[in-house]
Amino acid sequence: MTEAPIPPENSAGSSDDELARAGGLYYLVRWGFGPLARLIYRPRIEGVGNIPRSGPIILASNHLSFIDSFVLPLFAPRPVYFLAKSSYFDGSGIKGWFSNRFFRALGATPVQRGAGQAALDALDQQRRILESGKAIALYPEGTRSLDGRLYKGRTGVAFLALETGAKVVPVGIVGTNDAMPVGAKWPRMSPRVTIRYGAPMDLSHHGPASSGRARRQATDDIMSAIHALSGQELAGSYNEVPAQNPVERLKQVLPHERR
Fold first, then answer.
1. pLDDT per residue over 48-101, tens digit each?
2. What is the rounded CA–CA span in Å between residue 2 and residue 85?
3. Which CATH number fits domain 45-83+113-182+189-238: 3.40.1130.10, 2.10.110.10, 3.80.10.10, 3.10.180.10?
4. Where are the domains of the chain?
5. Is the pTM value of this prediction over 0.85?
6. Angle between helices 212-230 and 156-164 (to 10 degrees)
7. How far apart are CA 187 and CA 180, in angstroms?
8. How far apart are CA 255 and CA 105, in angstroms?
9. N or C terminus: fewer CB in 10 A for the chain?
10. Can you give the residue ranges of the Phospholipid/glycerol acyltransferase domain (predicted)?
11. In this predicted structure, what is the pLDDT of residue 248?
């Protein structure tokens, strides 16, 4: 198994400006949209006391719907930051401006998706946020589950936890795939959403972040905790984006670490 490369200490680009820019808007959106979302969806929120009110923390959640990235920051008891694909931030016109400001207000920072340097930059952004004492949200599966099953976790979340010492709070979200199924343009009004927070996990006993075995074992523990909270059927495989060419198909078949 190939070990994940370690992000350099001074990668280009910092999330500090993004976090500062999001501050005031975050609370405006949180206290504006939050009560409205609670009124419409009447969410069941369980185990909220498991989230430490200060210090670095990683919310590691399953991922069923586009609206998961609204549900997590709006209903959490403290500000939560997450990465979102850069296309949400670089649109043009009024629509592009609104999308940019809204996602920043939710606590999102833009990131180029992909492997190689893009993956390293994403990890480094998240590390910086944690080292500043904030909370971040991650989807260990990497992308949404299209069939409702829970897929194997990628090891980036474990790397961040082991590298920074942050504890991981597993999260099981239930019902967002009914509220806004894949392909829907707008969320439905009727289904109730359930959010379950598990007890914080200290993963340091697995070993250092530089150990591929430690990252894999820590990730498997996180996914087991998410499974206990969400009750999803286990897929037993990675949620891979369909390969676009023979080289990508070969890379998916060969043993490698999913970051």
1. 999 999 999 999 999 999 889 888 888 899 888 887 777 767 777 887 777 777
2. 26
3. 3.40.1130.10
4. 45-83+113-182+189-238
5. no
6. 110
7. 4
8. 39
9. N
10. 57-176
11. 46
